[in-house]
């Protein structure tokens, strides 16, 4: 096994030695031969050669003095770049293979072509392009061509020895391609330069200007221009310069001034420049709003509006609008208008100037407030002696009402926002000149309001005296200072009113009821109204008499006088009068007992009513005859078996009598015949009787105040009786 390994190593080593020997036997590639060397571009030379077997690449060398430029290429042809234009170079080539690099080929001279001119192009007008360049080294001439960039149309080509060239008669706003190169003395062309240049646009046409008077702006339009990127509109006036730019075919110029003449022109532009401006179009804007507006109202109801003249104003229109919405206007070429106005309105006034461009902008709006209207329906709703209340309908424009009442040198005023006024502290029975002025804060008082006369109610009379005449009539007298007044006196009591009237200073009240208390007042009345009542004066009439009087005999010497109560009477005085004397009583009751009466005598009865204040009324006079005197010596006698006779002694004077016997078995009565002093009772039973003999009044009334006697009528046997006097007693 070890012997095999040694044998293998020996073989390997032999192989390596053989390979080394083979490598050392390879040589460098052959030297290439340059067929030609030429320059088409000013910074390079192209070399052509025959291919060298085994060569994998080639090294081109260009030498200019001490400057060497090398380029590695893969095969022929090859180009050396980075060279200088119009320069003679020594060109060599080496082939390269893995075995090495060949020797340089024999040199061949080649010269780079001229450099391309550096172009500067511009379009001085819409139909020309100017091409400029700097001198090119070794160049003796230049060739410049131009054509539309889209390939349409013809090609212009010009040769020149100058460094600029202008192409004319071109289409405006069109993009052109310019190509230029230089040539040397041999006529060899150099590099060319290519650039594009657009001609400037043509002048816009068909300029149209539309003016907006409300917004003070102008809309300018035109026909689109070929090749224009942008448009500029200029508006020139003596004092301003306005413009607008756009890519479209219309543009709006804002902020124009009123009353100004503008010259409007349009120019188009692109990257080449601007066109010539169009011929200017004249634009006259609307006139400015008139200034220095003056408003006057003279006389009232006529409104005059004046203003100053303005530039470019052909005529004027003044508008007057009232605050109720009604508007009027006037059209004039002058600087003043007149309008009818009404009181109490606020007018809003504006003036416009007009021309062909339209209406001027709105200037200041003026307001003028006319004087407030005067109240016309002043109505006095209350007129008293010292006060007048007046009302009226509200009027336009009035914020306050000023009421004045003038009486000679005295003035009474009241101010109020309400359409009413109460004038107080006035003089009674006085004529006042009353005026209601309307007032507004803006215009003040309307002093043209008319006045009217109002007379206050008469002064109150003063009652001086109330007297009663012989006929029970009440005479009232008063004092007053009124002129031509009618006076009414009123007596007011519980039972109603009683009045009398007079134009003088007294009147008579009649028919006042008795026993009444009255409050008496006097009132004056004129067409202006009624005065306040005078201070009241109390009046009391005499008390009323009793409606009836009754006299009743109580005893033989006492009578009772009674009566109905009379109105207003507090006490009564009753007097019984005869030739024998007088009986009198004073009482607050409605009856009175009078004693010491003599029987059988004629009396006069009088009653006097007395009020609380001492007023008296003699009320009644009545004749009264006192009753006959009671009989004396009354005795009973038996008449037969069942009857008795009553006998008495008659008093003075003639009288009729009646006899009554009162017993347990009945009452027995008998009356004597005229002129007799006895009477008989038949069929009277045995009993104890009370016997009374009484005079009978003329009225038939039987008096019961005479003395009574008791008798016993006894029986003896069956029919015989005895009359026994038992005594006397007063039995009612």
TrEMBL record:
<dbReference type="Pfam" id="PF00041">
    <property type="entry name" value="fn3"/>
</dbReference>
<feature type="domain" description="Fibronectin type-III">
    <location>
        <begin position="28"/>
        <end position="112"/>
    </location>
</feature>
<feature type="signal peptide">
    <location>
        <begin position="1"/>
        <end position="24"/>
    </location>
</feature>
<dbReference type="InterPro" id="IPR003961">
    <property type="entry name" value="FN3_dom"/>
</dbReference>
<keyword id="KW-0732">Signal</keyword>
<feature type="domain" description="Fibronectin type-III">
    <location>
        <begin position="457"/>
        <end position="544"/>
    </location>
</feature>
<dbReference type="InterPro" id="IPR013783">
    <property type="entry name" value="Ig-like_fold"/>
</dbReference>
<dbReference type="InterPro" id="IPR036116">
    <property type="entry name" value="FN3_sf"/>
</dbReference>
<protein>
    <submittedName>
        <fullName>Fibronectin type III domain containing 7</fullName>
    </submittedName>
</protein>
<feature type="domain" description="Fibronectin type-III">
    <location>
        <begin position="289"/>
        <end position="373"/>
    </location>
</feature>
<feature type="domain" description="Fibronectin type-III">
    <location>
        <begin position="115"/>
        <end position="203"/>
    </location>
</feature>
């Amino acid at each position: 096994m070890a012997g095999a390994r040694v044998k293998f190593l020996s073989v390997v080593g032999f192989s390596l030695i053989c390979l080394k020997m083979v490598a050392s036997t390879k040589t460098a590639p052959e030297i290439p031969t340059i067929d030609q060397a030429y320059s088409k571009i000013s910074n390079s030379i192209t070399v052509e050669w025959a291919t060298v077997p085994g060569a994998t690449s080639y090294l081109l060398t260009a030498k200019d003095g001490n400057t060497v430029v090398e380029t590695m290429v893969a095969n022929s042809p090859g180009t050396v770049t980075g060279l200088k234009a119009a320069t003679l170079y020594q060109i060599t080539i080496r082939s390269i293979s893995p075995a090495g690099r060949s020797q340089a080929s024999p040199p061949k001279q080649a010269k780079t072509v001229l450099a391309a001119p550096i172009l500067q192009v511009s379009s001085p007008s819409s139909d020309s392009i100017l091409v400029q360049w700097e001198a090119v080294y070794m160049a003796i001439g230049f060739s410049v061509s131009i054509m539309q960039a889209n390939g349409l149309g013809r090609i212009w080509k010009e040769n020149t020895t100058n460094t600029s060239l202008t192409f004319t008669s071109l289409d405006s706003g069109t993009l052109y391609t310019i190509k230029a190169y230089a040539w040397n003395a041999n006529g060899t062309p150099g590099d060319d330069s290519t650039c594009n240049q657009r001609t400037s646009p043509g002048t816009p046409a068909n300029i149209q200007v539309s003016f907006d008077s409300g917004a003070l702006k102008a809309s300018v339009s035109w026909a689109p221009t070929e090749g224009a990127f942008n448009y500029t509109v200029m508006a020139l006036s003596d004092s301003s310069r306005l413009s607008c730019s756009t890519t479209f075919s219309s543009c709006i110029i804002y902020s124009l001034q009123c009353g100004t003449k503008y010259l409007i022109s349009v120019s188009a532009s692109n990257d080449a420049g601007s066109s010539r401006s169009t011929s200017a179009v004249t634009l006259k804007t609307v006139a400015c709003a008139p200034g220095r507006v003056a408003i006057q109202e003279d006389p009232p109801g006529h409104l005059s509006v004046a203003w100053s003249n303005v530039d470019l104003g052909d005529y004027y229109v003044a508008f007057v609008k009232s605050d109720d919405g009604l508007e009027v206007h006037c059209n004039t070429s002058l600087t003043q208008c007149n309008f009818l106005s009404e009181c109490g309105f606020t007018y809003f006034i504006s003036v416009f100037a007009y021309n062909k461009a339209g209406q001027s902008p709105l200037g200041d709006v003026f307001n003028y407030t006319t004087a407030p209207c005067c109240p016309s329906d002043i109505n006095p709703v209350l007129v008293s002696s010292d006060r007048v209340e007046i009302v009226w309908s509200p009027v336009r424009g009035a914020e306050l009402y000023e009421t004045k009442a003038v009486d000679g040198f005295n003035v009474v005023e009241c101010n109020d926002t309400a359409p009413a006024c109460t004038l107080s502290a006035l003089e009674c029975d006085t004529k006042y000149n009353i005026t209601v002025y309307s007032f507004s804060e803006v215009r003040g008082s309307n002093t043209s309001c008319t006045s009217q006369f109002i007379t206050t109610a008469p002064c109150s009379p003063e009652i001086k005296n109330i007297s009663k005449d012989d006929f029970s009539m009440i005479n009232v007298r008063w004092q007053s200072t009124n002129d031509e007044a009618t006076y009414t006196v009123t007596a007011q009591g519980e039972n109603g009113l009683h009045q009398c009237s007079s134009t003088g200073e007294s009147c008579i009240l009649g028919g006042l009821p008795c026993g009444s208390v009255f409050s008496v007042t006097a009132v004056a009345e004129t067409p202006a109204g009624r005065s306040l009542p005078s201070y009241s004066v109390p009046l009391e009439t005499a008390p009323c008499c009793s409606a009836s009087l009754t006299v009743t005999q109580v005893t033989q010497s006492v009578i009772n006088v009674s009566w109905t109560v009379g109105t207003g009477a507090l006490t009564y005085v009753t007097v019984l009068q005869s030739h024998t004397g007088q009986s009198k009583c004073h009482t607050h009751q409605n009856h009175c007992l009078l004693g010491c009466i003599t029987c059988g005598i004629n009396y006069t009865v009088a009653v006097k009513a007395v009020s609380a204040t001492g007023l008296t009324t003699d009320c009644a006079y009545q004749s009264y005859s006192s009753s006959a005197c009671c009989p004396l010596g009354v005795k009973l006698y038996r008449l037969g078996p069942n009857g008795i006779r009553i006998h008495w002694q008659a008093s003075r004077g003639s009288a009729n009598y009646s006899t009554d016997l009162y017993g347990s078995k009945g009452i027995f009565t008998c009356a004597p015949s005229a002129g007799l002093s006895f009477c008989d009772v038949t069929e009277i039973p045995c009993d104890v009787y009370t016997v009374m003999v009484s005079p009978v009044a003329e009225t038939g009334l039987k008096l019961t105040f005479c003395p009574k006697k008791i008798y016993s009528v006894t029986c003896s046997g069956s029919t015989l009786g005895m009359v026994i006097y038992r005594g006397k007693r007063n039995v009612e």
